Amino acid sequence: MDSGPQNASPSAGAGGSAIYFDGTSSRRRLVTLAFNDGLALHEDGHTLAAWSFADIRRADSPSGALRVTCLTAPALARLEIRDAAVAAELISRCARLDENIPGRHGTARIVGWSLGATVSIVAVVLFGVPLAADRLAPLVPQALERRLGDVAEGQVKTLFGGKTCNNASGQAAFTKLVDAIRKSTGLDTSIQSEVLATPVPNAFALPGGRVYLFSGLLAKAENADEIAGILAHELGHLRHRDGTRNLIYNGGTSFLIGLLFGDITGSGALIFASRSLVTASYSREAEQNADTFAIDAMRRLGRSPKPMGELMFRVTGKEGDRSLSVLSNHPLTEDRLARMSQEDRPPSGPPLLTPSEWASLKAICSSDSKI
Amino acid sequence: MPVSFSGDRGEFFGLVTRGAALELITVGFYRFWLTTDIRRHLWSNTHIDGDAAEYTGRGKELLIGFLIALAIIVPVYVAYFVASLEAERYKAFASFPLLAFFYLFGQFAIYRARRYRLTRTVWRGVRFWMSGSGWAYAGQAALWGLLMILTLGLILPWREAALERYKMRHSYYGDLQGSFEGRGWDFFKRGWWLWPLAPIALYVTPLAPFVYAAFKAVEWRWWLSGIRFGDVRLESTMRRGALIGLYWKVIGWVLVLAVVFAAYLALCSGLVASMSGMPIGQFFAPQVFLKSIPLLILAGLGYLVFALAINVVMRVYLLRDLWVRVLASTIVHDIEAAANVSARGEMANALGEGFADGLDVGLDVGGF
User: For A262, phi and psi rounded to 5 degrees?
Assistant: First the structure.
């Protein structure tokens, strides 16, 4: 071990050799160290630099070496000490050596801020996005909504075969039924409705004013009031612009939850799971509002909403036993039936369809209208 | 003069395992700091001519870059959504210009991300740095991308050579300017046989790791052998099969982890079923056990651990071990030319890294 040739005072600790890069050129200098009041770096008898111990900071180094820099030196000046004893000597003198190295304290802060960000994103998903969807949906122009509907329609038709049922007498009955509900609720004529030939017992509405009734549901229906209630429910979705609202809401929540889970591989499933949990409650609320709309419409027509609940119950059966209510995007069918039964009144208006019209509607999908 | 690596594998494993756990706790936000720590470890254990490099980037810079990129990308995404609805009405392919716009953004991100990494790379107290324009690069990359489509990818070697020439011409170590001497034709000669194999590998899945690993090995060797900084030359002796083992090890570990995960699921279902007091047959009717909350939570937790374990495996093999193999095959010639280089160049911001994160642009090991 060399000691500093001239500047090392007798009281200084043992010096040692080290490699020095001055941060202005890549020249590799072999220096001898002298521990005085500060750290002095000597090369061939010249003092290259004198660093105060309080200004010396650790830099990343390969395992087995100590690499330091100094706050008062050029930013990239580096002193590399490979002798463990000299390194230990220097470490013992530099009290603030590790202040710049990201350590445990920094990690705790990152965790803290991340949790804060998570809470804020969750709050926005739960409260901010529904509010934004409710406020923004009415501002979406009709033309844009219609276009969204066009895109969705293509997908629906490929998914369910896309054959429209429209034999003449059936279609006439269907139009009569839809018109009756439409007029009673004050919706305009821009609404299009169709019966699709598919065994799935369902019905739904698309943004831009489209209502689809599946023949599978028609097959399970026992009277016109049942179907009328379902159609009124779907028209309720149109009136409340639920399709557009859902689109904004789903887009917003997907984006924010995706942002939250960022980079974890396989986050897709997580995103899906947490999203369905959050959106389910939003969707349940929309369904309840559409039910209210349907009950209202049926009452105005002088018919009871109870048959609608009965039809739904016939299709789904009792749901409470096997489905998790927090995950379900509909209210449980038995609860809906109970609500409709409460609103049950003896009919005060004329039947919506004559028996022969009802028979024609039931047969709307047969190619030749036999009845 | 060979290049050596002094990092301890166990230490790296500890680093990425701890990082994965923190990623879980911070729902992914820790990724910026984990990426930084991985690079710090790899860089500072890489010795060239006896002196180790250093990575001076920090996680906070990546976070800020990501936030700025987000502030730019989000409005563009929204505008893109509205515009594509509008454009789709006229013709199906009318949204193509918008896709092209995103492609440009991605290429810009690649250039700027490399620039960030390079300016945080220090060796012997002097940093690397980069000039040039990210948008000019993106424009070139897009034109070559068009040619790629027209030639079904056959032009790839010439594309990479041209783009690398641009990048290296604008790269510096201090006042030593870089250049790239790899020619497309050399790349083509070494790897042409992979081109017809690629479509086959898409159908014959077990073939894919071989083809991909061979392609990466050929690409690494050609790329490294073309790099120059002033009179300093790099050379790579990597064999074509050098990386195949790594990919198969990853596949093997993923399979092992999948088996463990399946066993865990089976165990959980058994436990929950026996505790629910229901007859076993009845419990496993799909409507029942798919709705059991305790089981869903246990499965969710297991899935998270499974995903994080895969992340650890990928980082150990495809970042660290790959890095080590690449270094072991690399020889530096005429390093004396870099013995007295003057420091120059400014640090660049991490906007490009942020774009790359936000747009999911794939970056290679260390992003080079």
Answer: 30, -105
Cα dihedral A335→A339→A345→A349 (10° resolution): -90
CB contact under 8 A, B31 and A263: yes
CA distance readout (Å), B260 to A190, B252, B255, B289, B303: 57, 12, 9, 21, 11
d(CA A234, CA B224): 64
Q: How many helices (H) and strands (E) does chain B have?
A: 15, 10
CA nearest to A181, candidates A293, A298, A290, A287: A298
Q: Among all chains, which residue has been given the structure tokens 């042409």?
A: B192
Residue B174 and residue A24 in contact, taking contact as beta carbons nearer than 8 Å: no
Residue B319: its chain A contacts at CB < 8 A?
none
How many other C-beta atoms are found inside a 10 Å radius of the C-beta of residue B179?
14
List all residues of chain B from 43 to 102 with a beta carbon under 8 Å from chain A: 43-45, 47, 51-52, 54-56, 58-59, 70, 81-82, 85-86, 88-89
pLDDT tens for each residue of B221-235: 999 999 999 999 999
Residue of B nearest to A262 (CA): B28
Instruction: State the pLDDT at residue B10.
Output: 94
The answer to whether the CB of A147 falls within 8 A of the CB of B89 is yes
Residue with tokens 């300017």: B177
DSSP A238-292: HHTTHHHHHHHHHHHHHHHHHHHHTT-TTHHHHHHHHHHHHHHHHHHHHHHHHHH
How far apart are the C-alpha atoms of A221 and A216, rounded to whole Å?
9
Does the structure's ipTM exceed the value 0.90?
no
The tokens of B238 are what?
């990597």
CA distance linking residue A352 with residue A331, whole number of Å: 27
B127 touches chain A (CB under 8 A): yes
B85 vs A118: CB contact, 8 Å cut-off? no
The structural domains of chain A, ordered by start, are 17-93 (2.30.29), 116-362 (no CATH)
**pTM value?**
0.78
